[in-house]
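Re: Re: ligand-bound prediction request (bumping)

Still looking for help on this. To restate: I need the protein modeled with nicotinic acid bound, output as structure tokens. Inputs repeated here so nobody has to scroll up.
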Amino acid sequence: MRETLDAIRPPDEEAMAAARARHDRLTKPAGSLGALEELSIRLAGLAGTCPPPLPAPAAVAVFAGDHGVHAQRVSPWPQEVTVQMVANYLAGGAVVNAFAREVGAGVHVVDVGVAADLDPAPGLIVAKVRPGTDDLAVGPAMSEADARAAIEAGIRVADRLVADGARILIAGDMGIANTTPAAALIAAFTGRDAAEVTGRGTGIDDYTLQLKTSVVRTALRRLPADPDPLRVLAEVGGLEHAAIAGFMLAAAAHRVPLIVDGVNTLAGALVAAALHPGVTAALVAGHRSVEPGATAALAHLGLDPLIDLHMRLGEGTGAVLALPIVAAAVRVLHEVATFDSAGVTEK
Ligand SMILES: Cc1cc2ncn([C@H]3O[C@H](COP(=O)(O)O)[C@@H](O)[C@H]3O)c2cc1C
Ligand SMILES: O=C(O)c1cccnc1
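Reply:
Sorry for the wait, this slipped through. Here it is.
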């Protein structure tokens, strides 16, 4: 982890200035591409060159883990749905697979903490730290050593996908009950109240939402004032959130952009940003999930999401849909003619 944190560099101001200047010479009114101009300038700063590389090929990693807090009935779904959905991803049958085929991204599944043994399969990366967390309602979800091991597992996944040629990474999650630790992490890192950031997840009723909020609030009380990020993660987090944080830190270290999805990957992003604030330079917010914690986390990270389709699924689905927008933003800097080259008169 140290090596990855030490490799994260600030954005290259020169490349950003070059991208800004280039935008003003392209055959369009200056600023007319709005947020896409800012995005492409950020990506130039991340890559350290203008234009930045086209973000292809894209690799999605769906980090899967189980949660002891499931015992508190915070999710209406049985825990075995986690392992069943992992099988579904590997068979290509989930929403994230359909979306990934649409945009030409590869899907990998990372078992960082599923509470069942998985048979080896193409596309499955086995990095199990432990078979699920403990119940965060009654004590720490995991040890700090386990939290660190899961972060390191996520780092290794990004290292491997980038070594295999990925030029953009997409983070996804699967883990029944994981919107409970996500809410707790978001409350802990943003300072918001549990009620502001706890949402309905897969679709819970009012009674369950109250129970879930009180589970989050009670768990947060165990945290000391101003806790170390690793302690927060161990106390109230999940194995997939930890691995996603590592995945993001390694993307930043490799200067490869990473598209963030919904509330679980945003919780991972808050962990990563607490470990190294420079990580946000590599992060692109794919979409705004309906979960209230997503909006709180986006505001805290200073990220503006590219799309808002009222989605609340996870798996990386919202992030995958944003990929063509990110690619289009970069392609402008590669391909659009200048006023000079196209012979278009300026105002
Ligand atoms: C069939 C199915 C597919 C999913 N894909 C993502 N999630 C999403 O829902 C879960 C979190 O919601 P909660 O905290 O309410 O359990 C996670 O697994 C998340 O990825 C799914 C959930 C289900 C049931
Ligand atoms: O916003 C998300 O990513 C989300 C919402 C509900 C359930 N799982 C994930």
